[in-house]
Amino acid sequence: MNALSTPVAPHELNKARSNFLRGTLAASLADELTGALAPGDDQIGKFHGFYQPDDRDLRADRRDRLLEPEYSFMLRARLPGGVCTPAQWLTIDRIGRELAQGSVRLTTRQTFQYHGIPKGDLRGVIQGMHQVLLDSIGGCGDLNRNVMCNPNPDQSALHGEVYAWARRISEHLLPRTRAYHELWLDGACVAGGEESEPLYGETYLPRKFKTAVAVPPHNDVDVYANDLGFIAIADPADPARLLGFNVLAGGGMGTTHGDKSTFPRLADDLGFVAPDQVLAVAAAVLTTQRDFGERGDRVHARLKYTVERMGKGAFRAEVERRAGGLFAPPRPVAFTDHGDRYGWTRGQDGRWHLTLFIENGRLRDLPGRTLLSGLRAIAQIHHGDFRITPNQNLIVAGVPARQKKRIEALARDHGLLVDGLTPVRLGAMACVAFPTCPQAMAEAERYLPDLLTRIEALAARHALAGQEIVIRMTGCPNGCARPFLAEIGLVGKGPRTYNLLLGGDGSGTRLNKLYRDNIAEAEILDTLDGLFARYAAQRAAGERFGDFVVRAGIIRRVENAASDFHD
After folding, report:
1. Is the CB of residue 154 less than 8 Å from the CB of residue 348?
2. Distance separating alpha carbons of residues 150 and 489, to the nearest angstrom
3. Mean pLDDT by 10 residues, the chain (567 residues)
4. Active site residue 76
5. How many CB atoms lie within 10 A of CB 98?
6. Which stretch of DSSP H or E encloses residue 148?
7. What's the rounded Cα separation, in Å, for the pair 162 and 178?
8. Sign (positive or negative) of CA dihedral 127, 128, 130, 134
9. Which residues contact 356 (CB under 8 A, 6 or more apart)?
10. 105 is catalytic
């Protein structure tokens, strides 16, 4: 069922020969003559949670000096639903300060990652995380990645149940190889050659596989952007009671500049299932992709292309066959937004939850903004938990009323809580891009804050300063910050140039579309200036910017990504 087709991408042969993700990583890690891993091990390392980039700011200089690139590693944790304890946070903080250049990065997949780890410190990072029951299994690689779940600061009973399902899905879709424990945690080697991967097989999946669980009306996980999605359906008569889930399949953001056979795609709704069917359905979707996914061309290897090629009906029938049951008709759902809700909210249990805006998810100590130190001080007194959001922000959750004042004071003293931020800035996201992402064609994290300052000035000029407009930027078209769902998407095309896309709906249920190709800052601002002027003058009451540009005919609605996104 997991046999290699002919021809296959080199990655497939590398996985098949890796002895269930061991490769020659042990020898690579012991090699002190280079900061890199051996060819092939850099790909196998992804399954253990890390990428091997080099510092692109230094690349040309080191090449001129006949030095190898300045290699280091990015390691991403597995943290289902984004929840961690204060004790875990203190360890996350310590590792970031001591082994990862003094920084922790919150990600758009609701977890954290480290940058700049020397090869010799990888084991120390992973073992340090393990001491507080954290791991990086499946942080990257061709398998199921971190399972996202709506963090819901209101802490409803329904959310607690749904979060438990997110954790169960994550555990159910883990690989079974002992390679991670052997290599990083000094586990005993498996003897006798009896190891197997019942879900994945020896070649795992054709490409990465992303899963999210949403709790309406908030779509902060961007559930339609995932390979596999579950939308929680509450009992209308008892909103605290979970009836089951609508199941989605075939979403994905990545595309390739100049290749119209690639496109972002919203997931299809396969139907409704009861809770006791969730794990079987999740495994059925995954194994259908394992067996039907493209293994000869990684560009077309995501599940979205499998669903597109098979057709929704045939794909659903195959999933039903493997899961041993039929989908019921999907239940009606409505999403109102895909952002975060900032400041204090009170939960049903009387405890309080403080959502902090972390610009582009980057946590470090700078003059006047000692973000890591502030969270460390909060963690030392906090008795609830921390929740990373899918929008790169952080919730200090479960705060008793008596601690509110002290925690808020710590947040303000360290620059974690700042008044007066505009809705445009609060709703924006960027990927990491330069200097550590090897795929980046343009800046994102380092550039977006300054560009937003100029966009905020345009909005104020047109009396739109209080208007929420979702803006997302990526340094390449892989779509890590989900720019194709934004009302304004900026996708790196080259140094200092971007594709400008318009037309997302502000709730993550509609793709945007290319409006201007390969433009620099001056043209971006000039274009938005004109669009903001029209929006201010012609919008209907309560109409969002993304809806306006579609209604006004400025951009055409994307109905079918395969045919509409590029035309």
Report:
1. yes
2. 23
3. 67 95 97 96 97 95 96 97 98 98 97 97 97 96 97 87 97 97 78 78 97 97 98 95 98 96 98 98 98 97 98 98 98 96 93 97 96 98 97 97 97 97 98 96 98 98 97 97 98 97 98 98 98 98 98 96 93
4. yes
5. 13
6. strand 148-149
7. 29
8. negative
9. 342, 393, 394, 395, 396, 411, 416, 417
10. no
Of 78, 480, 493, 510, which one is the catalytic site residue? Answer: 480
Please say if 140 is a catalytic residue: no
Residue 60 neighbours by CB distance under 10 Å = 9
Catalytic, out of 76, 105, 207, 493:
76
Concerning whether 387 is annotated as a catalytic residue, the answer is no
Annotated active-site residue 476? The verdict is: yes
- Give Cα separations from 553 to 175, 483, 548, 550 (angstroms): 48, 21, 8, 5
289 SS3 class? helix
| CA-closest candidate to residue 490, choices 552, 430, 555 | 430
> Nearest CA to 336 among 159, 482, 506?
506
Catalytic residue among 437, 482, 513, 544: 437
Active-site position among 431, 472, 510, 513: 431
Let me know if 189 is a catalytic residue: no
Q: Which of 476, 493, 510, 513 is catalytic?
A: 476
The DSSP line for 449-504 is HHHHHHHHHHHHHTT-TT----EEEESSTT-TT-GGGSSEEEEEEETTEEEEEE--
Query: Quick check: pTM over 0.85?
Result: yes
Tokens of 421: 């931020």
Q: Is 84 an annotated catalytic residue?
A: no
The sign of the torsion formed by the CA atoms of 32, 34, 39, 41 equals: positive
Q: In 368-458, where do the E strands start and end?
A: 369-370, 385-388, 394-399, 429-430
Contact (Cβ atoms closer than 8 angstroms) between residue 134 and residue 145: no
Active-site residue among 46, 78, 109, 210?
Answer: 210
Residue type (1 letter), 235: D
φ and ψ at 122, to 5 degrees?
-60, -45
End-to-end Cα spacing for the chain: 37
Specify whether 312 is catalytic: no
The one-character DSSP state at 526 is H
Catalytic residue among 15, 105, 207, 208: 208
